[in-house]
Amino acid sequence: ADYIIATPIRDGEQIYGLRLNPRQGLNAFTTSLLQPGDIALRINNLSLTHPDEVSQALSLLLTQQSAQFTIRRNGVPRLINVSVAELTGMNGQRHERTQ
Q1: What is the predicted pLDDT for the residue at 19?
Q2: How many domains does the chain have?
Q3: pLDDT digits over 25-80, tens only?
Q4: For residue 8, what is the domain's CATH number?
Q5: DSSP symbol at 23
Q6: Which residue of 20, 43, 53, 92 has the lowest C-beta tally within 10 Å?
Q7: Biological process (GO) annotations (predicted)?
């Protein structure tokens, strides 16, 4: 999504999650319960261990108003409901920067 950098975390060839960070200059995580560096394991029950489901899950963030993340933070799994408006900081509108 435009407001999250999702970096695959691998164990050899196997992806076991996506490390989440806000894009530079955006405060995407300030109002959501996500924290920079969280590892997403699932989004809306789509496993983030298969490339096809990763693409589908990230696409959902562009079309849904909310998403349920299963994350691992400090080694502990957590379930977090996130409003896409919280991530964009724009009440659901896409954030576009002009120079």
Answers
A1: 94
A2: 1
A3: 556 676 678 889 999 999 998 999 888 888 888 888 888 888 999 999 999 999 99
A4: 2.30.42.10
A5: P
A6: 92
A7: protein secretion by the type II secretion system
